[in-house]
Design goal:
The chain is mainly α. It folds into two domains: about 120 residues, no CATH class; about 90 residues. The protein contains seven helices and three strands. A three-stranded antiparallel sheet has the order 1-3-2, with no helix packed on it. A hairpin with a 3-residue loop joins strand 2 and strand 3. Helix 2 packs across helix 3, helix 4 crosses helix 7 and helix 5 runs antiparallel to helix 6. The longest helix is centred in the middle third of the chain and has 22 residues. The two termini are about 30 Å apart. About 10% of the residues have low confidence.
Length: about 210
């Protein structure tokens, strides 16, 4: 039995134990590396299935990302079949409809294939990727010098850039918000003159969370 990506449902070129996993490896289809995976929907007769074979991998990943944000459990099956509980059917329909509407609006605004290309590139680009790397480096350096003014400035600038950008390619919105929140916590520690142990702990949390993405 092939392992399925927990985000887009595509087949993975490697196997893992359990239904969900945490790894720095990225799905070759959707490009997502799941860092915080939800509880899988248990197999039951009371479920509704959606066959999403006509949806590109990145779009399927975006849909399940929205389900995670709404705390809706789901399970991927073979042949890109997405299963959800019967009670969640209305919310899932809404997510799919909203996603379809947003795609149609983009196509109307930009026209045809060009709109499709723009949708695929709807991420933070190089700026977001650089900000993520800068946050990792600054957080790591703060572990050794919690109140170094130059490092604090670097962290502040990187956090500002991250806060103003969309997620980098392959990073889901909930994960990006966690990065922003962790960076804000470290900045708040520095601004309020928190104990060095607190600064170090929060900087370590930010660095360790980012480790799988840089």
């Amino acid at each position: 039995m092939r392992s399925l990506c927990p985000r887009c449902g595509g087949e993975l070129p490697f196997d893992f134990l359990g239904r969900w996993f945490e790894t720095s490896a990225r799905c070759p289809e959707c490009g997502v590396a799941p860092a915080a995976v939800p509880t899988v929907l248990p197999i039951s007769e009371d479920e509704v299935t959606y066959t999403l074979t006509d949806m590109p991998p990145t779009d399927r990943s975006a849909v399940t990302g929205a389900l995670v944000e709404d705390d809706i459990r789901y399970r991927w099956g073979p042949d890109l079949v997405l299963a959800v509980a019967v009670g969640a059917e209305r919310e899932v329909d809404r997510v799919l409809e909203d996603f379809a509407d947003s795609g149609a609006s983009a196509a109307d605004a930009d026209g045809g294939e060009e709109a499709g290309i723009g949708a695929e590139e709807a991420d933070g680009g190089e700026e977001a990727t650089e900000a993520m790397g800068d946050l990792f480096v600054a957080a790591d350096r703060l572990l050794h010098a919690p109140y170094d003014e130059a490092i604090g400035t670097e962290l502040s600038e990187a956090a500002s850039a991250a806060g103003a950008s969309l997620p980098p390619y392959g990073v889901e919105a909930p994960v990006w918000r966690t990065v922003q929140d962790l960076a804000t916590s470290v900045l708040s520690d520095l601004e309020q003159g928190a104990d060095e142990d607190v600064v170090v702990a929060d900087a370590r949390a930010l660095r360790d969370f980012l480790r799988d993405y840089v």
